[in-house]
């Protein structure tokens, strides 16, 4: 667990660590607005530059044995190498390094251990039928990681340069990407604060690293509909908080409610918000509900809007775009608006419920069978014995078709 | 930054990492209550036991040079050693170790880096005039760390055993505790999840460690009143969230608002809550306001109640207890209730404001000069040229008298 080296970067922030005298200025320029989420600029907008051409590559001398595809478990085994970039407030991004996968050695005072300075992404590399490696909308992940980082005073970076490096990394790890449909290489870019002082302030140094785990299909034997527990006793996100960012801070607090839901037989929490019991998201996926409109009978695909409490899912965005392009011509209406748990229950009770699915990088889409709410079970339109609705299946096929390159598309 | 060893503990949790088939049971036993904070039992109530007698001590062979007292900065330099205990779900707490202060070597997939599995405490060891080392109400810190840990599915432990170990550690580090008044050894017990998988679930392994930093007086040249910015555009805590726990997750999201307040000349944010603009806390301290009651003229010492959005400060608790014991007989009334920013502003406008101070481990008490709110500055009762009110000074002397053993008290 330990090593004696104390070679860690020790760039200390110049931010005041304790009360110091400050002048009171520009009081009149303060603006008081009610944002659902604050608009954080990067802690260091001046130093975005990454130099992909300066990458150093140190290949492993002990390559790992490949694990049989059918034994792969999400995020448990990793490839031979990792990509890493150090950042300091004074020097910006240092040259990228690809090295053998190895432990991080960090001072026990490092701020990520104490104050949760961590933001991350989840993305996948796919092998198409011609054996080419494809990334799916990586610029979306880069943009989101930059937004997440800025919200907790971690540095921003040039996304295109990082995509180039990720491409190079994927080529090096090609043998770990199974070529069968449904398989992929899960990529986890992670950005942590590495300053080693206990003063609470913006980190003066950071580490951006990427590790990769080969993964199999989320549903190896075909879709398996999940059951959700509508949760109001704990709250995942709130206006003015950080629920729309992919921060470590959003995850640890959700585990105990998840265990409690599991103890009652449910796979995940469906996070409700407020007295109105608005449906927000599942924590690991965004939620879509297909229902018929109460007044007009119009078929609608509903999802919660990006109001600062909802993660800006890349799959969510893709589902919305494809639905607008391919479902609206068929007579569907795609609607981003706040909707309540009661609306869903009413739709079920009145025979207007069509289907419900989650959307996220891990499963792409995930059919929902029922939602536990106030002591009752709200059925989500799946007939007994069926594991996915028609819309869910079509959406999965559309998105996977683009991901694996069966269909040429600008997102590949 | 890196090392090649992969000797990290690899106890994987048996918690399902992906959707699996679960039976739906005991729906009727679900209870829907509106808690301000969920009551999490320990992830492992069965394995609290720590064995202080089994501690192994490996002393440093390269003792550090002591830093002159006047150059000490909070949390920047550390003592020679650290205390650490590993935990695994199957074995419970392994024998404690005191070792030279050293880096932690962790797999890059370790869950603390991704999902913010971290809880911590802040406490101090003081040297009294007879040269004895004293801890101040350490059982309070142990209880709080256990509550924080349980809320994010980290293991609990027997507090008394850990206090014993901390005592032993402090004795070993005695030379780092300056004996002058105002100086102390800041102790940082930290508990992190160490499971090295990316599946989102309760950690199957954890590390509890303690590092220590010698610190000088928070106000080396006497009190210096701070200015606060009442903050409503970002929200620190929410009912049903984790704002009452000492989790890393509560800290990183507060840095950007802190930087923004600093850019306008304020030392800290005063976190408001809701449309009513309730005064909650400062993020690093709880807040106390001494005002005269609008109707009765009664002198009141106000602080926000522990409703799940307020950190249960040990200093807060000590201030309340001393105020009830020593101020109420003088005619004060001590009140824990929700109060609004407007109430404070009205008290100032109507000549009823007496004084305002923060309370926390770092500064004990911290006088407040003014609060920026809606484009105006609310003065907090301090005459020009004075840096602390009478109550603030008395409270500081009372608490420090107990901490340094001038007064014999059950809290020592």
From TrEMBL, chains A, B:
Cofactor list: pyridoxal 5'-phosphate
Cellular component annotations (GO), alphabetically ordered: mitochondrion
Alphabetical list of Pfam families matching this protein: Aminotran_4
BP GO annotations: L-leucine biosynthetic process; L-valine biosynthetic process
InterPro entries hit by this protein: Aminotrans_IV, Aminotrans_IV_CS, Aminotransferase-like, B_amino_transII, BCAT-like_C, BCAT-like_N, BCAT_family
Catalytic reaction annotation: L-isoleucine + 2-oxoglutarate = (S)-3-methyl-2-oxopentanoate + L-glutamate; L-leucine + 2-oxoglutarate = 4-methyl-2-oxopentanoate + L-glutamate; L-valine + 2-oxoglutarate = 3-methyl-2-oxobutanoate + L-glutamate
Keyword Transmembrane among record annotations: no
Modified residues (N6-(pyridoxal phosphate)lysine): 246
Keywords of this entry: Amino-acid biosynthesis, Aminotransferase, Branched-chain amino acid biosynthesis, Pyridoxal phosphate, Transferase
Keyword match rRNA processing: no
EC number, as in UniProt: 2.6.1.42
Enzyme's top EC category: transferase
A GO MF term: branched-chain-amino-acid transaminase activity
Recorded family membership: Belongs to the class-IV pyridoxal-phosphate-dependent aminotransferase family.
Protein name: Branched-chain-amino-acid aminotransferase
Annotated organism of origin: Aulographum hederae CBS 113979
């Amino acid at each position: 667990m330990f090593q004696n080296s104390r070679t860690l970067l020790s760039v200390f922030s110049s931010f005041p660590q304790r009360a110091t005298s400050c002048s009171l200025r520009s009081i009149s320029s303060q603006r008081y607005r009610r944002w659902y989420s604050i608009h954080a600029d990067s802690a260091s907008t001046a130093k975005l530059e990454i130099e992909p051409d300066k990458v150093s590559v140190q290949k492993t001398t002990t390559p790992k044995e490949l694990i049989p595809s059918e034994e792969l478990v999400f995020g448990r085994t990793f490839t031979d190498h990792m990509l890493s970039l150090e950042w300091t407030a004074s020097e910006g991004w240092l040259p990228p390094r690809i090295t053998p996968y190895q432990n991080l050695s960090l001072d026990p005072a490092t701020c990520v251990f104490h104050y949760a300075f961590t933001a991350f992404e989840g993305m996948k590399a796919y092998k198409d039928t011609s054996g080419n490696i494809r990334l799916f909308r990586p610029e979306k992940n880069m943009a989101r990681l930059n937004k997440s980082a800025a919200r907790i005073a971690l540095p921003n970076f040039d996304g295109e340069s990082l995509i180039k490096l990720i491409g190079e990394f994927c080529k090096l790890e090609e043998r770990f990407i199974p070529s069968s449909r449904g398989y992929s290489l899960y990529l986890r870019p992670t950005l942590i604060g590495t300053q080693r002082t206990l003063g609470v302030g913006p980190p003066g140094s950071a580490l951006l690293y990427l590790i990769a785990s080969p993964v199999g299909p989320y549903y190896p034997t075909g879709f398996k509909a999940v059951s959700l527990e509508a949760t109001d006793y704990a709250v995942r996100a709130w206006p003015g908080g950080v629920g729309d960012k992919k921060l470590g801070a959003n995850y640890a607090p959700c585990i105990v409610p998840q265990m409690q839901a599991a103890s009652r037989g449910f796979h995940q929490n469906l996070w409700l918000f407020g007295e109105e019991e608005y449906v927000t998201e599942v924590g690991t996926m965004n939620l879509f509900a297909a229902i018929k409109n109460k007044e007009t009978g119009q078929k609608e695909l509903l999802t919660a809007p990006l109001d600062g409490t909802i993660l800006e899912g890349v799959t969510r965005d893709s589902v919305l775009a494809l639905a607008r392009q391919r479902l609206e011509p068929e007579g569907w209406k795609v609607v981003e608006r706040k909707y309540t748990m009661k609306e869903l229950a009413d739709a079920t009770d009145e025979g207007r419920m069509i289907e419900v699915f989650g959307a996220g990088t891990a499963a792409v889409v995930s059919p929902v069978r029922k939602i536990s709410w106030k002591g009752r079970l709200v059925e989500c339109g799946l007939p007994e014995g069926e594991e996915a609705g028609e819309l869910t299946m079509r959406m999965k096929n559309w998105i996977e078709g683009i991901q694996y390159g069966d269909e040429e598309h600008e997102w590949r």
